[in-house]
Amino acid sequence: MRIDILSLFPEMLEAVLCKSIIGRAVQNNLVQLYFHNIRDFTENKNNRVDDYPYGGGLGMVMQCQPIFSTMEHVVKQVGSKPHTILMTPQGKPFHQGKAQELTKHQNIAIICGHYEGIDQRVSDALVDEEISLGDFVLTGGEIAAMAVTDAVCRLLPGVLKEDDSHMIESFSSGLLEYPQYTRPPIFQDMAVPDILLSGHHENVDKWRRYQALKVTYSKRPELLDAVELTKQDRKMLEQIKQEAGQNNISE
User: pTM above 0.85?
Assistant: First the structure.
């Protein structure tokens, strides 16, 4: 997969995405990341990328010309127009399912906004979908673009040491992830659950499923509406609800 990110601050992206797991994926040619400085494609002597909004109002708006020219440069390099994403608070909320969906594209371009927004003609002519990290506003689209890129890249074959490890993480199965423990077995009088030390894999798997249901029910119960539960899951969930009710009574 190739991902091109159009930004006013490509050095921010490179500093984060070229390190750790994603950085190794780039070095191993599992993914190609390219960062393009929109300011390099301006057509004015001051390399200006913003201007006052028509109709008045506070703040500045990113001009369409530099972004269109940057995208033309990307298209020439790629050979065709990539699936293009605009990071914006107006976009649809990003989630694990969307990350998985994006892995199906061979080429992706992500546009990072700044100031009060981007000239609407960019979205109208270049953008295939708008994505948001949530109902809040950042100073720029770089942090959001990094989050999307990281989430997508780690799903690509070979990026993680164990290809199936992402399948047991939060949201991949529709549930939040079960609690995790490592050495030492006892720390400050807090002990690892005995079942995890038992070596009985079937019981461990049952415990983890129960805990995943329990964590999801207590923290994000709305997620359970979209999960396909087995008969055993339903029994576990009933027990979890009973335990939660008893705890509330005792409190």
Answer: yes
